[in-house]
Amino acid sequence: MNRGRWIRTGLILTVALISSAVQAWSQSPVRLTVEVIQASRNGNAVDPSLGKLRAQLKSLNYSSYQLLASHPLATTIGAKQVVALPGGKSLDLFPYGLSGETLELLVTITDGTRRLLDTTFRLSNGGTILVGGPAHGDGVLILAITGSF
Amino acid sequence: MAGQISMNGDRCEFLAPLLSAYADDELWGADRDRVGRHLAECGACRATLASYRLMGEALRDAVSAAPARDFSAITWPPRRVLTPPRRVIYHPSRWRDPWPVLAGAAALIAFLVGVQLVRPVARPSNTVEIEQLDSAESVMVIPGDEERMTIIWVFDAKDQTESIGQGPASG
Fold it and tell me: Nearest Cβ partner of A140 from B113, B129, B156?
C-alpha cells in the first residue's frame, strides 16, 4: 500500500472513530426503571420484592402493596418509551435532556383518551419519583420511576 | 632627534609620540599636518618613522606568515556528543505517516471512554424539580428530600376509595 492510500485510510479511520465517539457521547445512555405497584386497603400484604420502596410507601394511606410489574428500560435522550399499564392505561416516558446532573423527563399517563397526568421534571441521577393515584381494581396504581444516566 | 626643532618650531620629542600613530595612518587633522611638516624637515624623525613602519611591516608579515592553528583540521566531536539528540516524537515532515494520527485518535477515544467509565456516580437524590404539571384530575405534589421520594398523586375520579376521603398521607 503506497503512502497516498495510507493517508486516505488513516484520515477516514480517524474521522470515523472521532465521529462515532462524538455520537456515542451525545447519545448518552439513560436507564429508566418503572415499577408498577398496586396499593389497596384490603389486607396487609406488602410485597417483599418492593425492597427499599416499602419504607417510602408507608407514608401512604394504604395497607397492601403488590408489585405488579417491573420494566427496566435502556434508552437514550430523545427516545420515547411507552409502558403499558394495567387496565388499559399507558405510561409515556420521554427523557428529553440532561441538565447538569439531572435528567429531564416528560411523563404522561393516559387512560384511553383521558389524560391523567402530563408533567415534566428533573430527576437526579439514581433518583426515584412516585406517581400514584390512577384507579386500578380495588385500589390504585403507584408507579416508581427511577432514572440513572 | 632629541632637541631638534623644525622650522615651524616643533621639537622632535614633542612629536615623537605622534610618529607611531602617523606611521599607522591613525593621525588626523592638525596633528597630522604638524607631523607631516616636521618630517619634511627632520631626517631623524623620518628615520624613526621608517623604523616604525619597518617594524610594523615585520610584525604584520610575522603574523600573516605564522600559520594559524588550523581549526579546520580539528575533528570536532560528533554533534550528538555535545548535545544529546532530542527524541523526536512526531516531526512535521512525517505527516504522511498515518500511524501517529491514528494513535493519537485512539488515545483520545480511550481517554473519553475512560472518563466516562470512571466518572463518579452521583449520590442518588430523591429531590425532584417539577417544571410543569397538567392533569384532567386534581393533583397533589408531596416534595421529597434526600430521604423521602417526591410523590405526585393524581386523584382519579374512578378511584372509589378516594370517595371516602382517604388519599395519600403527606407525613
Answer: B156
